[in-house]
């Protein structure tokens, strides 16, 4: 029965050649394989209705989830990468950037915005993983630094949504110093007693974990997110052993004391609002609560 | 041990020794030949070390005979009392620290420590600190602040340790906290890269009023080997990676990512450790004087401003003009 046997060993279809289900109709959960209607999945905030797998989403989706009526003012939208080191690996850095910009319609791996969340002012910086693995270079560092400065001068709470493979190698020393720069700005924000919430999403690793992502007054995460300093492969190679199940998951990091809580994406907006309202000076909290209640009753009607 | 580019020099030096010995035995005057050879060696040395590639500097920074943190501290300080432990989990042997005396002035020394033989290397975990190391460093820095003593950190690490327990105990958080806290230290902080300065593991003790590099040290976001592995999927391109990363002291100073370079003896720190230690001590004392003249609050704000200005971006003004700014 030779036609049942593989003629050539292994899978020979290249990754690009694999046939994917056309986008826009159905979403298949990578975790439990349940198929959902895309619109349904979106309404569910990109979580699986069956197993609650939280799909990776980008800044556009987070802004839509958090800001009232998806209304916000984008901060520093026109910063783009320079090439101070004239870095060339398998391709030149500027061409890599140009290509990624065309592919993703993003300028770099982070976007900042100011808007209202259930009526509460909020400054958000959110990383985009699809832009060179959400890597942190000068643009990411500078945009986050400016967003923190904006939050500090306007006395508005700051939310950082991290999603990154770490520092961007193509900016070498400059990337490394973005860790220092953002931490310096956060030190100033802390002095001004402005709340800083750090939401670590899947995945947050490397230099991002070792700087702003771990410096929140509140470090929070989503179910199942990968969070770590060194990547799992590197650790496996170092210790020469398989890693325990669930290692570096948000639940694992919570268990070891480095997160305040894990929040389901569907409750994210309300949970953040509640937390920030509690931190407001006496008096303002009641006002905001009344506003929220008024809004939700309107919706019920 | 000899590096490739050290071999021709060593060969000539061997010849010189031979010639001198021969001359002594045979009582023949060869002083002219000796002088000629000595000159030749000097020229060759100068030429070699003036034209080192970036990868060769990386090799020098890892030379097995290169002085390590404790060699410098013990060589410089008249007295040194090592202090241990993070008061939480354990004592990290890859990160050392304690009060020392430099010309009668008390200084807090902190630094990563490498080992010289297999046993020591294991004990010191190859200079790769665990979270306890960074927390111990922070504890000592806060103590220095409490007693108003300047802090000197010596950086020499291939990176923070990427281990299982390190993750459990929050390697990322430990480094992140140091970055933030070091910006608020009220005493002068001097950071010196003496060998390898790899990534967050180095930066975790490198937020200073002055960040200096020894001539043959390197400092970057990743080691050339790991960079090669990620970008080319093999270690083989480490030399290209070293070139691309621009990780030498000269590169880093040119890009204003460090504040200065400390010259090494010709041939590298390992060829004349005593001279190197003397140079370093002088530089540290000068820098402390310079920094102590500044008001603490002003010092902190200068420290914050310096790091805040690092980075190069393009900003499109009004969406048309391409405005190249060094911020």
TrEMBL record, chain A:
Q: Which residues form a coiled coil?
A: none
Identify the pathway: Lipid metabolism; malonyl-CoA biosynthesis; malonyl-CoA from acetyl-CoA: step 1/1
Q: List UniProt keywords, sorted A-Z.
A: ATP-binding, Cytoplasm, Fatty acid biosynthesis, Fatty acid metabolism, Ligase, Lipid biosynthesis, Lipid metabolism, Metal-binding, Nucleotide-binding, Transferase, Zinc, Zinc-finger
Reactions that this protein is recorded to catalyse: N(6)-carboxybiotinyl-L-lysyl-[protein] + acetyl-CoA = N(6)-biotinyl-L-lysyl-[protein] + malonyl-CoA
| Annotated localization | Cytoplasm
Q: Which residues form the CoA carboxyltransferase N-terminal domain?
A: 25-294
Cofactor binding annotation: Binds 1 zinc ion per subunit.
List residue spans of C4-type Zn fingers: 29-51
Extract the GO molecular function terms from the UniProt entry: acetyl-CoA carboxylase activity
List required co-factors: Zn(2+)
Enzyme Commission identifier(s) = 2.1.3.15
List of residues binding Zn(2+): 29, 32, 48, 51
Enzymatic class: transferase
Task: State the oligomer form and interacting partners.
Answer: Acetyl-CoA carboxylase is a heterohexamer composed of biotin carboxyl carrier protein (AccB), biotin carboxylase (AccC) and two subunits each of ACCase subunit alpha (AccA) and ACCase subunit beta (AccD).
In the record, the note on similarity to other proteins reads: Belongs to the AccD/PCCB family.
Please describe what this protein does: Component of the acetyl coenzyme A carboxylase (ACC) complex. Biotin carboxylase (BC) catalyzes the carboxylation of biotin on its carrier protein (BCCP) and then the CO(2) group is transferred by the transcarboxylase to acetyl-CoA to form malonyl-CoA.
Q: What is this protein called?
A: Acetyl-coenzyme A carboxylase carboxyl transferase subunit beta
Q: Which organism is it from?
A: Adhaeribacter terrigena
TrEMBL record, chain B:
Q: What is its main location?
A: cytoplasm
- Give the record's keywords alphabetically: ATP-binding, Coiled coil, Cytoplasm, Fatty acid biosynthesis, Fatty acid metabolism, Ligase, Lipid biosynthesis, Lipid metabolism, Nucleotide-binding, Transferase
Catalysed transformations (reactions): N(6)-carboxybiotinyl-L-lysyl-[protein] + acetyl-CoA = N(6)-biotinyl-L-lysyl-[protein] + malonyl-CoA
Q: Does the keyword Glycoprotein apply?
A: no
**SUPFAM superfamilies annotated for this entry?**
ClpP/crotonase (SSF52096)
Q: Where is the CoA carboxyltransferase C-terminal domain?
A: 36-290
Q: What is this enzyme's class at the first EC digit? A: transferase
The keyword Lipid metabolism belongs to this UniProt entry's keyword annotation: yes
Report the coiled-coil segments: 9-47
Query: What pathway does the UniProt record associate with this protein?
Result: Lipid metabolism; malonyl-CoA biosynthesis; malonyl-CoA from acetyl-CoA: step 1/1
Q: Which PANTHER family does this UniProt record tie to the protein?
A: ACETYL-COENZYME A CARBOXYLASE CARBOXYL TRANSFERASE SUBUNIT ALPHA, ACETYL-COENZYME A CARBOXYLASE CARBOXYL TRANSFERASE SUBUNIT ALPHA, CHLOROPLASTIC
Q: What does this protein do?
A: Component of the acetyl coenzyme A carboxylase (ACC) complex. First, biotin carboxylase catalyzes the carboxylation of biotin on its carrier protein (BCCP) and then the CO(2) group is transferred by the carboxyltransferase to acetyl-CoA to form malonyl-CoA.
Q: How does it assemble?
A: Acetyl-CoA carboxylase is a heterohexamer composed of biotin carboxyl carrier protein (AccB), biotin carboxylase (AccC) and two subunits each of ACCase subunit alpha (AccA) and ACCase subunit beta (AccD).
- Family statement drawn from the similarity comment of this UniProt entry: Belongs to the AccA family.
The entry's protein name is Acetyl-coenzyme A carboxylase carboxyl transferase subunit alpha
What species does this protein belong to? Adhaeribacter terrigena
């Amino acid at each position: 029965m030779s036609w049942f046997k593989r003629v050539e060993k292994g899978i020979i279809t290249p990754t690009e050649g694999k046939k994917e289900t056309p986008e826009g109709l159905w979403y298949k959960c990578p975790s439990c394989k349940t198929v959902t209607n895309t619109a349904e999945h979106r309404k569910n905030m990109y979580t699986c209705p069956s197993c609650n797998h939280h799909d990776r989403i980008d800044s556009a989706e987070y802004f839509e989830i958090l800001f009232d009526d998806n209304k916000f003012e984008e901060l520093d939208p026109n910063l783009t990468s320079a090439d101070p080191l004239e870095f060339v690996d398998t391709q030149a850095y500027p061409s890599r950037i140009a290509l990624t910009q065309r592919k993703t319609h993003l300028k770099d791996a982070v976007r900042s915005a100011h808007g209202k969340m259930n009526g509460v002012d909020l400054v958000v910086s959110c990383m985009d993983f699809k832009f060179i693995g959400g890597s942190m270079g000068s643009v990411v560092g500078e945009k986050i630094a400016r967003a923190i400065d904006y939050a500090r001068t306007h006395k508005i709470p700051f939310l950082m949504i991290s999603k990154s493979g770490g520092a961007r190698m193509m900016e070498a020393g400059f990337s490394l110093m973005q860790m220092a720069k953002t931490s310096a700005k956060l030190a100033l924000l802390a002095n001004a007693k402005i709340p800083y919430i750090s939401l670590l999403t899947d995945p947050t690793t490397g230099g991002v974990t070792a700087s702003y992502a771990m410096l929140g007054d509140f470090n929070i995460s989503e179910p199942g997110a990968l969070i770590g300093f060194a990547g799992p492969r590197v650790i496996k190679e170092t210790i020469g052993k398989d890693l325990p199940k669930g290692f570096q998951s948000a639940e694992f990091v919570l268990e070891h004391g480095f997160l305040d809580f894990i929040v389901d994406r569907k409750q994210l907006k309300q949970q953040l609002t509640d937390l920030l309202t509690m931190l407001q000076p006496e008096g303002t909290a009641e006002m905001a609560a009344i506003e929220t209640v008024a809004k939700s009753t309107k919706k019920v009607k | 041990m000899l590096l490739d580019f050290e071999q021709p020099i060593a060969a000539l030096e061997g010849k010189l020794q031979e010639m001198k010995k021969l001359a002594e035995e045979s009582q023949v005057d060869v002083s002219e030949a000796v002088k000629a050879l000595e000159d030749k060696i000097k020229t060759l040395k100068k030429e070699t070390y003036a034209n080192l590639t970036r990868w060769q500097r990386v090799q020098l920074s890892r030379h097995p005979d290169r002085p390590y943190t404790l060699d410098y501290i013990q060589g410089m300080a008249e007295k040194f009392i090592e202090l241990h432990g993070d008061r939480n989990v354990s004592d990290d042997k890859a990160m050392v620290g304690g009060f020392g005396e430099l010309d009668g002035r008390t200084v807090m020394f902190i630094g990563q420590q490498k080992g010289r033989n297999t046993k020591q290397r294991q004990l010191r975990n190859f200079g790769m600190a665990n979270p306890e190391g960074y927390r111990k460093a922070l504890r000592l820095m806060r103590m220095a602040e409490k007693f108003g003593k300047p802090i000197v950190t010596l950086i020499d690490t291939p990176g923070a340790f990427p281990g299982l327990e390190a993750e459990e105990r929050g390697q990322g958080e430990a480094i992140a906290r140091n970055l933030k806290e070091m910006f608020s230290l009220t005493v002068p902080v001097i950071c010196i890269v003496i060998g390898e300065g790899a990534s967050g593991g180095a930066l975790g003790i490198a937020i200073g009023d002055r960040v200096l590099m020894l001539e043959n040290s390197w400092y970057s976001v990743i080691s050339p080997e790991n960079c090669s592995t990620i970008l080319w999927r093999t270690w083989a391109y480490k030399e290209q990676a070293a070139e691309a990363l621009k990780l030498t002291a000269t590169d880093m100073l040119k890009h204003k990512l460090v504040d200065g370079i400390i010259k090494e003896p010709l041939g590298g720190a390992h060829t004349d450790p005593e001279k190197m230690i003397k140079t370093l001590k002088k530089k540290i004392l000068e820098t402390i004087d310079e920094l102590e003249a500044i008001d603490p609050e002003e010092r902190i704000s200068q420290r914050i401003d310096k790091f805040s200005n690092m980075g190069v971006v393009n900003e499109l003004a009004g969406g048309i003009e391409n405005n190249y700014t060094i911020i």
